[in-house]
Amino acid sequence: MLKEWVKEDKLSDEELSARLEKARAELAIRQMKVKEANLPVLVVFDGWGAAGKGSVLGRVIKNMDPRFFKVETLSEPTSEETRRPFLYRYFVRIPKEGKFSFFDGSWMGEVTQHYLQGDIGKKEYKEHLTSIKRFERTLNDNGYLVVKFFFHISEKIQKKRIKELEKNEHTRWRVSKNDLWQNKHYEECMDVYDEYIEATNQFVAPWYFIDSSEKKWAELQVTEILISSIDTALANAKSKQNAPLLQNTFPLKNTPKLSEVKLDKTLTDEEYRKELDALQKRLRALHNELYHKRIPVIIAYEGWDAAGKGGNIKRIAGALDPRGYEVHPIASPEPAEKARHYLWRFWNRLPKDGHIAIFDRTWYGRVMVERLEGFCTENDWQRAYNEINEFEKELVDWDAVVIKFWVQIDKDTQLARFTDRQNTPEKQWKITDEDWRNREKWDLYEEAIDEMIQKTSTKFAPWYILESNDKKYARIKALKIVIKAIEKKLETK
Amino acid sequence: MLKEWVKEDKLSDEELSARLEKARAELAIRQMKVKEANLPVLVVFDGWGAAGKGSVLGRVIKNMDPRFFKVETLSEPTSEETRRPFLYRYFVRIPKEGKFSFFDGSWMGEVTQHYLQGDIGKKEYKEHLTSIKRFERTLNDNGYLVVKFFFHISEKIQKKRIKELEKNEHTRWRVSKNDLWQNKHYEECMDVYDEYIEATNQFVAPWYFIDSSEKKWAELQVTEILISSIDTALANAKSKQNAPLLQNTFPLKNTPKLSEVKLDKTLTDEEYRKELDALQKRLRALHNELYHKRIPVIIAYEGWDAAGKGGNIKRIAGALDPRGYEVHPIASPEPAEKARHYLWRFWNRLPKDGHIAIFDRTWYGRVMVERLEGFCTENDWQRAYNEINEFEKELVDWDAVVIKFWVQIDKDTQLARFTDRQNTPEKQWKITDEDWRNREKWDLYEEAIDEMIQKTSTKFAPWYILESNDKKYARIKALKIVIKAIEKKLETK
For A24-56, how does the pLDDT look when each residue is reduced to its tens digit (9 = 90+)? Predict the structure, then answer.
């Protein structure tokens, strides 16, 4: 695509100035409309080193109100960032509703550079391309506008610009090692960029080539494309157009319905104590190994109110070194979280490699409480099954151990536990009116949960049901599953 | 993707039979739901020769009602078909609402085979991939379910099966030359298939690999995937989810608004006659050349009622050899046309190469009358600008000359011509109540037309405005544009 690209004829100076003046004024208007429509806009500036991305970006934002945009300069990942999935540092930087984020450099630059320099192989590179396509698509599906620019200059112009920058002591720092490497391997880079662009040139997030041989001309191209893309996104926002649901392509496990789960499993106190002790010891030892081998673990808990999630989590956490794990209680999202993609707050809470994150309630809120209470649209929760499978696939591809527990009890057991909480002064804080209201919707929830388990029990991240009428049984089962999953992962390392 | 694909473990005979029985019954239910929901379903069976596509297809349809599906066997294009754009024979076979079309072989097989055997080069192949992605996406956007299966067998199994088929005189005919070629060049084919699949594995039309080493097992995989995909499409249909509007990526021309068009251009009778005669002679000569060089020409006419489209077309057609052109008057769509993608009826009317098709009203009805009269949804007409640009890009890539005329008059001229028609007995058939009603909506139409011209004046298929207050002037201008466009194309041939 890039290789066959034919530049547009440049305009006369006069025409260029006139169109630029008009375009700048139009962009200023769009900026207000973006704010009014709560549209989040992510603009990617990528391309050849010394192509003038930075200075064109500087020109574009000069006409914008600084309250409405943020510039993210993305060169090499920090050491903290390299310990997370490669998309982490991009996902945590996505803009809020109504704001622009300009990315100076992006996942394209990072991934192609690592591939070109042999840091990642073909297989990992292809996996990254798939991840990137999913990332850009899910942003679009969730109402984001993603505009991607590739700043193009010839080998000759690049060489000339690098030399000019190097001549001056004030600009010398702007020439990176990578720029020099690129210019030396221009043809090789061109092949990889061309392939990358072709592979990621999705309808919902297409690439635009910017002839960057002249700054004013580059600014005009960028500004005009931004205006037209914003108009398209505003039309989408205005008519509340939803993303189509996608065919499932992830391999699924056959799963039972909740009503088919037998809840009569129990353990005696003695069996429980003995097993608990041995299993916690084992888990402690494994945690050490995980830390040394830098394997991340993510344990997700969902379950009925009063099913015993808290106590179950305590038995896992109790076995772990407190410096190596974190428990994330998930309540309703904060305003800053609500203003972004609903998975943003979970990306933000991912553990470093070698660490364990335990989620007390999770991203599955989307297809349970948010679905049933109308906190999101039907399209939102219907789309979420696939989006969540994709999210967990990222975690698994990052080499994390991902374990999902559904803590199951029956309706009578819940009633008994609610009543007990009500009548026991030191437990009263644990029961609220909301719990009783949720209980009234038991059947609706059960239907939603069955659908959730069926659609998100992928082979790479299946659900485990913890029969928790007897809490002791459920705790031991959870420990065993966690241990087995970690052991299995350690075997491959 | 294909190369790294890991087959699922096969089931036990018992489990296989049980699941198959269940799946068949479920598919029968889905068939009725597809009918009720008016969902068009296009299922593609592709993959290795001798992989058993045909017999698995036979098994799948055995449980379906023959009134609800059609099987399309697509081997090599006929000579009539090769004289059309390569997607033509697929587009004209898309199913109606509520029906299934099973394609035994598809555009994948055709395009990869031609590429593998050197009939088309890398550049044309890549163009075809882009066309295919657009085709599959626009079907999805217009409410079609597209399910794509790739039947996979190893080189060894393929060889064995081919030998078995050849042994028996009743099955020998089923082994094609291409099957033999494939087996001999298995690795080479694998590389191309793998790349093809990766390039066309879109979220809205993903690929499914079918382990085709055993028929019953292959049938189960196909049936279960069909069920799940149909359920997704039914959920889309039920909640009337619309496709998001796409960012424009086609280069556009700057265009004037209709109100800026000067309509005072005229010709004297004498000038007119002289020019007409010369130009028609020239066009007649060019038509011959077109025919010999097999270049197709498509001329699209849109314009106000009484603007003089008919007379204008007559002057073009009058210069042409009647065996080499056709005029297509476009009225509102027939039921069979309404039940398919709105561009279907235009694909059906494409000329053979070397021929000229003149459309008296066109696919632009979508963004004018259908928009303003509410014959389609807002999402439909908003999406159509890009869909139409993509359609015309197919025509241009096929090497057609594409000319689009907007025949422009002012409101007073229309009134004068309406009144004249009303008052002249032999012209009265030309004026209807609808014309008067449309006239009342002049301003709304003008707004829609301005938007249409702005968004679909691509550099490869721009609009030409014919100032037709003086019909003679407009006719001469049209002839000149047609001649110039044909001459330009002939120069490159």
Answer: 999 999 999 999 999 999 999 999 999 999 999
Tokens 């009826």 correspond to what residue?
B345
On the question of pLDDT at B459 being above 90, the answer is yes
Judge whether A204 is closer than 8 Å to chain B, CB to CB: yes
Copy the structure tokens of residue B437.
Answer: 């009603």
Is B310 an 8 Å CB contact of chain A? no
Q: What is the pLDDT of residue B381?
A: 96
Contact A444, A374 (CB under 8 A): no
CB of B243 within 8 Å of a chain A CB? The answer is yes
Number of neighbouring beta carbons within 10 Å of residue B253 = 13
HSE toward the beta carbon, residue B189, CA cutoff 13 A: 24
Question: Using CA atoms, how far apart are residues A332 and A86, in angstroms rounded to an integer?
Answer: 27
The Cα–Cα gap between B46 and B208 comes to 10
Alpha carbon distance B143, B340 (integer Å): 10
For residue B438, the tally of other CB atoms under 10 A from its CB is: 19
| Sheet of strand B41-47: strand arrangement | B69-73, B100-104, B41-47, B145-152, B207-211
Q: Which of A88, A102, A485 is nearest to A295 (CA)?
A: A485
Neighbours of A100 (CB within 10 A): 27
Q: How far is residue B180 from each of residues A222, B109, B172, B210, B212, measured CA to CA in Å?
A: 52, 15, 12, 21, 18
pLDDT the model gives residue A9: 84
**Which of A173 and B359 is assigned the larger pLDDT?**
B359
Query: Model pTM?
Result: 0.94
Beta bridge partners of B71: B102
In total, the C-beta contacts within 8 angstroms joining chain A to chain B are 83
For residue B70, what are the β-bridge partners? B101
Band of pLDDT at residue B345, cut at 50, 70 and 90: very high
Encoded tokens for A209: 């080539």
Identify how many contiguous H helices and E strands chain A contains and give both numbers: 20, 10
Q: Do A236 and B244 touch (CB under 8 A)?
A: yes
Residue type, A58: G
Work out the pLDDT band at A241, boundaries 50, 70, 90: confident
User: In this predicted structure, what is the pLDDT of residue B336?
Assistant: 95
Q: Residues of B with CB below 8 A from A137's CB?
A: 203
As a whole number, mean pLDDT of residues A336-361 equals 97
Confidence of residue A240 (pLDDT cuts 50, 70, 90): confident
Q: What is the pLDDT of residue A167?
A: 94
Mean pLDDT score, B195-207: 96
Q: Do A244 and B208 touch (CB under 8 A)?
A: no
Residue in the block written with tokens 């996942």: A107
pLDDT value at residue B409: 98
Q: Are A303 and A405 in contact (CB under 8 A)?
A: yes
- Most A CBs within 10 A among B203, B238, B379, hence the mutation to make, goes to B203
Rounded distance between C-alpha atoms, residue A249 and residue B205, angstroms: 10
Cβ of A248 under 8 Å from any chain B Cβ? yes
Q: What is the pLDDT of residue B193?
A: 97
Test mutation, A137, A142, A203, chain B, max B CBs within 10 A: A203
The 10 Å Cβ neighbour count of residue A156 is 10
CA A472 from chain center: how many Å? 35
A356-360: strand order across its sheet: A325-329, A356-360, A297-303, A401-408, A463-467
Q: What is the DSSP string of A241-258?
A: PPPPPPPP-S-B-----G
Query: What's the rounded Cα separation, in Å, for the pair B154 and A96?
Result: 50
* Residue A291: CB atoms within 10 Å: 16
Q: What is the mean pLDDT of residues A243-265?
A: 95
CA–CA–CA angle A278, A282, A284 (5° rounding): 120
Cα B302 to Cα A155: distance, rounded to the nearest angstrom: 47
CA pair distance A100, A103, nearest whole angstrom: 10
SS3 (DSSP) at A136:
helix
